[in-house]
Specification:
There is one protein chain. With 427 residues, the chain is α+β, with helices and mostly antiparallel strands. It has 2 domains: 241 residues, BirA Bifunctional Protein, domain 2 (2-Layer Sandwich); 129 residues. The strands form 4 sheets. The protein has a 6-stranded mixed sheet with strand order 2-4-5-3-1-10, with helices on both faces. The longest helix is centred in the C-terminal third of the chain and has 65 residues. It is elongated. 22% of the residues are buried.
């Protein structure tokens, strides 16, 4: 898929088919053996325009068995769970073909791309099927241009093989033959077929890390380079190599848009959950501050109530004839106690007032934060509401739809990686 930056890029992907069920599903899709497809972009009225550069003579599995019987390939030494089938998918963004004339130009491009596939695989005899799909509609471009635009791409199903020499063992009666080549077979081997290559400098010497280890180029990166170089040599100089590390080109327009929306939905859902948690924390903090305020207000009220007893103090004592005021011993003790208590209360009141002002200021700040977060939460919830409504109205359909898209997306974003040895990889 294009990155919408105006640059046309070649893309090549190798996909393992580890089980016979995987092989059958790919066959159904590539050979258009079904009446209906979950991919709404497949226009069966245009399927007759699909072009086979190699038409399968039987089912993929039956052809594989026949190749063994004919001695074309060998499964000698192969583990039961080894990968025996692979699929190459070659692609360029839809706009490239549309701008060059469409269908006829795509036919010629993929005719040359098939030649590249034959070299990459190691020979046409190892290819089970090669078909250019011309019946998958690019919905986004079609809607934008007001006409049907189709996304042309090439599927090549093959058997991964490597040449292996079988040597005469020590048990050979003719000792002069021991260690020499007994026979050469084309061994089915996905791991050896897609081994990483040593990266070379401009002089053809191996690139080394700072520790002196060889730098390896991942098989996926090698495939991208090989396809691009083949097409460039064939005269297609107006395309660039697919970007290293990119996986989005493996998705159809619809899949990519849905995957992007799903990712956006997941991000927004996470933001809402985080905002809700923050709101809860903020609300708890506000409630705590309110309790502190209530406690301070209660203490202030108690102090104020205590201050009312001053009137009682003022009524103590009796004036004498000389104008002085005389107190009884009991009243004198009360005044002393209140004098001491008054000083303590005055100091405590001052401290409580400071705490009260601080708590009120802190509560106001928390209230502002709460209001801001609550507004942000409402905006996020409003934006994601269509998805929530869809899930509420048809949860099973929505879940099944996104599960199907995400499954294909994760598979597309996991290019085959070779086993890493103690060497660095280069993409």
């Amino acid at each position: 898929m294009a990155r919408n930056d105006g640059i046309d890029r070649t893309f090549a992907r190798n996909q393992d088919l580890p089980t016979l069920d995987d092989v059958a599903k790919v066959q159904e899709h590539n050979e258009r053996e079904k009446d209906n497809y979950s991919n709404q972009d497949i226009d069966t009225s245009q399927t007759h325009r699909n072009i086979h550069f190699k038409t399968p003579t039987d089912s993929y599995a039956a052809m594989f068995d026949q190749m063994i019987a004919d001695g074309v390939i060998s499964t000698r030494g192969l583990k039961a769970d080894a990968v025996k089938y692979g699929e190459l998918i070659f692609d360029v963004n839809s706009a490239y073909f549309h701008n060059h004339g469409g269908y006829e130009y795509a036919k010629q491009f993929y005719t040359d791309a098939y030649k590249a596939a034959v070299e990459i695989v190691g020979g046409e005899q190892y290819i089970l099927s090669a078909v250019m799909h011309a019946d998958e509609r690019n919905r986004a471009m079609s809607e934008a241009l007001g006409q049907d635009v189709y996304h042309y791409h090439l599927h090549v199903v093959y058997v991964p093989v490597v040449e292996k020499q079988i040597l005469w063992s020590k048990r050979c009666k003719d000792k002069s033959l021991v260690g020499t080549v007994k026979e050469t077979i084309m061994q089915v081997s996905r791991s050896k077929k897609w081994e990483s290559r040593v990266a070379l400098d401009e002089q053809g010497n191996p690139l080394l890390t700072a520790k002196g280890k060889k730098v390896l180029r991942a098989s996926y990166s090698v495939l991208q380079d090989d396809f691009f170089n083949y097409m460039k040599a064939a005269g297609y100089t107006d395309v660039e190599r697919g970007e290293r590390g990119s996986t989005e080109e493996h998705l159809t327009v619809t899949q990519f848009k849905v995957a992007q929306e799903q990712q956006r939905l997941e991000t927004m859902t996470a933001q809402i959950a985080q905002t809700e948690q923050t709101l809860n924390d903020t609300q708890a903090a506000i409630e705590k501050k309110e309790k502190e305020l209530q406690s301070l207000q209660k203490q202030a009220k108690e102090q104020h109530t205590a201050a009312l007893t001053v009137q009682e103090i003022r009524s103590m004592g009796k004036k004498t004839i000389t104008g002085n005021v005389s107190f009884t011993p009991s009243e004198c003790n009360i005044l002393k106690d209140y004098a001491v208590t008054g000083l303590l209360i005055k100091a405590e009141n001052s401290h409580l007032e400071e705490k009260l002002h601080s708590a009120q200021w802190s509560a106001a700040i928390w209230k502002q934060r709460y209001d801001a977060l609550y507004n942000a939460y409402q905006e996020l919830k409003k934006e994601v509401q269509p998805y929530l409504d869809a899930v509420k109205l048809a949860p099973e359909k929505v879940r099944a739809f996104f599960d199907a898209i995400l499954t294909r997306t994760r598979q597309a974003r996991q290019p085959t990686k070779p086993i890493r040895r103690k060497q660095d990889m280069e993409r």
